[in-house]
Amino acid sequence: MSPVDTEKQEGPSARTISALVDDAAERFAAVGIDTPREDAEAIVADSLGVAPKELSADSADDVSAEVAEDVENKVKRRLERDPLAYVLGRAPFRNLEVAVDERVLWPRQETELLVEIAVAKLPQGARVHEVGTGSGAIALALMSERPDLVITASDLSPEAAEAARENAERLGMDLDVRVARGYPDDLGEVDMVIANLPYVTDDTIFERSPEIQHEPRIAVTADCGEDGLGVIRGLIAETPSGTLMVMEHDTHHGPAMQELLNEAETLRDYEGNERASVGKAP
Q: Which domains are assigned to the chain?
């Protein structure tokens, strides 16, 4: 490695905002991160305690040694391909910001489609249960946008359930989160089951972005089987017949979901991919 490369690994010598952003963006690009500039600005803004949109990324203002050190620590985590959401400790989702860490998947923008579907389809006062709630993002977004709904959630991971409870408390919402595998035995009937369950196979996980390796494997692959639908099939089988289900899945799973659910419809996410299906449990 050349002296220049070594210096880049140790971080910038100058401590201006622009130098920190430029240095981080260059290092991120070098390891193949898709959004190097955006990630660099988000990290520097976070260390400064401001929103990214408020950051003057070309500023020649100096920052303190403490801020520079904090930026460098976060940059090193991102270089190791920790998801940006984990580095920052939070992620936007619909109109909320949820706290995330290694206990849970960080919520993606495409998952917002599930909330959009539920908001549009549910009648006043409907009962909704989210299976595999993780951070609680889906359930909490629904509570925020449809306060008339009766919403509960569950996760098989006690650590994930605790993360969801923490987010609910932080956001001032009363979300009933229980630890259970699949459809909880004591749940009774609900009007809708909503879920973003594992659907990545053990064979294909290494074809995806390196960041997914840092997420809890139980929430990514679990018992998905060769086609990625094992966990989804299990929940559909457990859910009372006729219950409306909204489920995220991989982009090639649409035809299979049409067979698994009655009266099924598959919808596309913001990128145009078939991302979620809605239908009734058989």
A: 3-80 (no CATH), 103-280 (3.40.50.150)
